[in-house]
User: Which sequence fits this backbone?
C-alpha cells in the first residue's frame, strides 16, 4: 500500500489527515483525526476522481465519523 496524496487540515481545535492510497490498481481513502481512523479500501480505479473527492472532503472538513457515508454517496453519483 502506497500513499499517493495527503492533506492535513486543522479547524475547531481538531486536526484531520486525509490520504489517498494505492493498493495494486485500486485506490482508497484513509482519514485520521486523533484516535479515530477510517480506512476505505478499493473505492475506485480512477485516481483523479478519488483525488477530487479527497480534496472536497478536506475542504468540507469531513471527519472519520462521517467519511464512510460521504464515500458511499460519492459512489452512487
Assistant:
Amino acid at each position: 500500500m502506497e500513499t499517493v496524496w495527503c492533506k492535513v487540515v486543522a479547524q475547531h481545535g481538531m486536526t484531520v489527515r486525509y490520504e489517498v492510497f494505492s493498493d495494486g490498481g485500486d485506490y482508497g481513502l484513509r482519514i485520521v483525526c486523533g484516535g479515530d481512523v477510517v480506512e476505505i479500501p478499493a473505492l475506485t480505479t480512477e485516481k483523479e476522481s478519488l483525488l477530487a473527492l479527497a480534496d472536497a472532503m478536506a475542504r468540507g472538513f469531513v471527519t472519520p465519523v462521517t467519511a464512510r457515508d460521504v464515500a458511499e454517496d460519492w459512489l452512487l453519483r
